[in-house]
Amino acid sequence: MMDTFTEESKTGIGARNYGEPIIEITHLQKSFGENHVLTDFNLTVKQGENVVVLGKSGCGKSVLIKCIVGLIKYEAGSIKLFGQEVSTLKQKELDIMRARIGFVFQSSALYDSMTVKQNLEFPLRRHGKQKSKTEVDQLVEETLENVGLMHAINLMPSELSGGMRKRIGLARSLILKPELMLYDEPTTGLDPITAEEISKLMLAMQEKYNSSSIIISHDMHCAELTANRLVVMIDGINYAQGSFEELKKINDSKVHAFFLNSK
Amino acid sequence: MEEKSDITISPVKKSEPAWVTVIPNGLRGFLNEAGETTRFALRFFREVFFPPYELREVVHQCYEIGYRSLTLVGLTAFIIGLVLTLQSRPTLSKFGAESWLPAMVGISIIREIGPVIVALICAGKIGSSIGAELGSMKVTEQIDAMEVSGTNPFKYIVVSRIIATTFMVPILTIMGDAIALCGSFLAVRIKSSVSFTLFFDQVFGATDFSDFLPAFLKSFFFGFAIGLIGCYKGYNSKKGTEGVGESANSAVVVSSLLVFVIDLIAVQITEFFGYI
User: Fold this and answer.
1) What is the C-alpha separation between A30 and A48, in angstroms, rounded?
2) B163: nearest Cα among B37, B60, B35
3) Looking at CA atoms only, how far is residue B17 from chain A in angstroms?
4) Alpha carbon distance B230, B251 (integer Å)
5) How would you label B31-61 residue by residue, b for 16+ Cβ within 10 Å and e otherwise?
6) ipTM above 0.95, yes or no
7) Rounded to an integer, what distance in angstroms lies between the CA atom of residue A25 and that of residue A4?
8) Which of A38, A85, A125, B157 is 20 to 30 A from A235, comparing alpha carbons?
9) Cα–Cα distance, B18 to B96 (Å, whole number)
10) CB B7 to CB A122 under 8 A?
11) Using an 8 Å Cβ cutoff, are B126 and B69 in contact?
């Protein structure tokens, strides 16, 4: 691990005053058979911070956030989310914890058999305390207006474009007003204009709801727009971290490779 | 655009006992699949009796699975009843037993042909649809999204569908039997002037409750098998969109095969209790 980069980051944007740590990941390990995806990953995210995790395809970025939310069990190390160790939580405790987290999936993961409105109602009916129909309708409409897709309320996911699906996926994750947002490749598969719109929307929503984010991406433009701090994941470890400008200046071929195609 | 998964997952290699290596690969694969399916079924029984109950989803699935299959089942049953009667008539005529036609067709349909044909139609329509739907949900991360939303996906998706198929296939079977008998009546009516009342008098005069009950009971097992296999194949779908097709295909093949196996066992049990 290139500790110097980590130290350097402390003088950069990472030195801004954020709140208490909401995620503390230490020595995280996860393998799939012979494929050691996470070998010794460490990361702390503070309240209000936007962290982008960069890495090549297949390096374990998606596995990392799935471990955070308890979808994948890790083998060693620790993930402390809001002060609680994820691996020791019982199912009910995990469900309560998940209500505080918004997860935007790479494929948007909209329920094909439900309309946009039903997609947004689903987490409300499952996680939230019993709300009246009027309250639910108000929340759905407010969230859809936030992502600019009020007109799509009665459409089926199959009728939406890629960008619209991402927005609806984002809206569904935001409906419970989460404290932490996890984005899995939010701009992958989108044209550059739509990708930029999604990145700006993510930032706007973070400001509106005052949430923290971990954004998994290999889209450098998205990283530049959204990140307070970047973490480069190589060989299952946090190889380097710092602000966009700091990492861009670093003379390391592995880190530099990520910036070759960025503006 | 379809994105490939970000990670490559290779199966965990566990050390196997020496005797396992003696078993041929094909047989080992079959036993492994049978074991996993049994485990899946046991999980169903573990989850079905404990809250939360997804009653709303069960009702929705009953509508999707039962009501939406009615046209296909009805049409097929009608044709089967009609064709069976038309094909049987010449043979019975040779023995001067034409008057036995309604009774013979009635027993055949109620005891065997009705339940099996309806189950096979359902294996094709419902099995493939469940396999493809769940497979697609799996590869597009909808099942993960459900879990993140505080929902037990197994209970919401699998349990509700298996309950729906278990109770809908017997109902479809009764409807299929009735429609097949109507088809049979039409075939009889084409060549002779038997009244509707006389035809059904002969059918029900030749059959009793012991003909109907075993057939009705086995259709619950057919429904359970169709739901279980469809859900198992879809829920464990792999290899992206290619896996979705495979899930749908193998759901149909395995559940159709299971229908025959269950039918064979049911006949043996019926015989054991003296109903044949």
Assistant:
1) 28
2) B60
3) 18
4) 5
5) eeeeeebeebbeebeeeeeeeeebeebbeeb
6) no
7) 19
8) A85
9) 66
10) no
11) yes
Mind listing the pLDDT tens digit for each residue in A54-106? 988 888 899 999 999 999 999 999 999 998 999 999 988 888 899 899 999 98
The answer to whether residues A218 and A257 touch, using CB atoms and an 8 Å cutoff, is no
Work out whether the CA dihedral A30, A31, A37, A39 comes out positive or negative. Answer: positive
The alpha carbon of residue B66 and the mean position of all alpha carbons in its chain are separated, in whole angstroms, by: 12
| CA dihedral over B80, B82, B84, B87, signed as positive or negative | negative
Q: Is A162 within 8 Å of B5 when comparing Cβ atoms? A: no
Q: Angle B238-B243-B246 (CA atoms, 0-180°, nearest 5)?
A: 130
Domain ranges in chain A are 3-105+178-259
To probe the interface with A, which of B141, B147, B161 has the most A CB atoms within 10 Å? B141
Specify the CATH class of A3-105+178-259 in words: alpha beta
Asked if residue B274 has pLDDT above 70, the reply is: yes
Assigned token pair, A175: 């409906």
Distance CA B248, CA B230 (A): 7
Q: What is the DSSP letter of B127?
A: I
- The DSSP 8-state label assigned to residue B159 in this structure reads I
The position carrying tokens 């060549």 is B191
CB A24 within 8 A of CB A78: yes
Rounded CA gap, A87 and B237, in Å? 26
Which residue is it, tokens 């309320």? A153
Residue of A nearest to B8 (CA): A58
Residue of B nearest to A190 (CA): B1
Could A189 and B1 be called an inter-chain contact, meaning their C-beta atoms sit closer than 8 Å? yes
Give the span between the Cα atoms of B138 and B234, in whole angstroms: 7
User: What pTM, to 2 d.p., does this model score?
Assistant: 0.84
- Closest residue on chain A to B6 (Cα): A58
Convert the pLDDT of each residue in B139-172 to its tens digit. 999 999 999 988 889 999 999 999 999 999 999 9
Best CA proximity match to A227, nearest among A235, A239, A219: A219
Of A57, A98, A110, the CB nearest to B148: A98
